[in-house]
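Q: Could you fold this chain for me?
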Amino acid sequence: MEVAITQVKILDLDFGKEINERKELMEAAKAKLAEKIRLDERSKYDDLVRKAVVQVLAAKTVKRRKYGSEEEVEVWTAPIVLTIQEQADRWKME
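A: Sure. Below is the predicted structure, expressed as C-alpha cells.
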C-alpha cells in the first residue's frame, strides 16, 4: 500500500506506432507524456518527472481497439507507471 500511494499509473498511452525495442519504448514514453502537458505547466512537469522513476510495464507496444469510439480506431499502447517518492508531488503530477 505504501508503494501504491507514490505511483501514477497510465494504462493506455497511445504511442502512435509499433515499438519493439525497450530503450526506444522508454524514450517514446517520456516524449509522449511531455506532449500531453500544457505549455504553462511544462516547467512544473519537468521538475516532477526528474524526481520520478518512469517504468514501462511491457516489452513492446500492443495494438488495441480504442474504446468508446464509433469508428474502428486502433492504437499502439503500453502501460506506464511513474513512481514519485513524495505523496504531495504525486498529487501534483496527477
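A (continued): The two ends are 18 Å apart (CA to CA).
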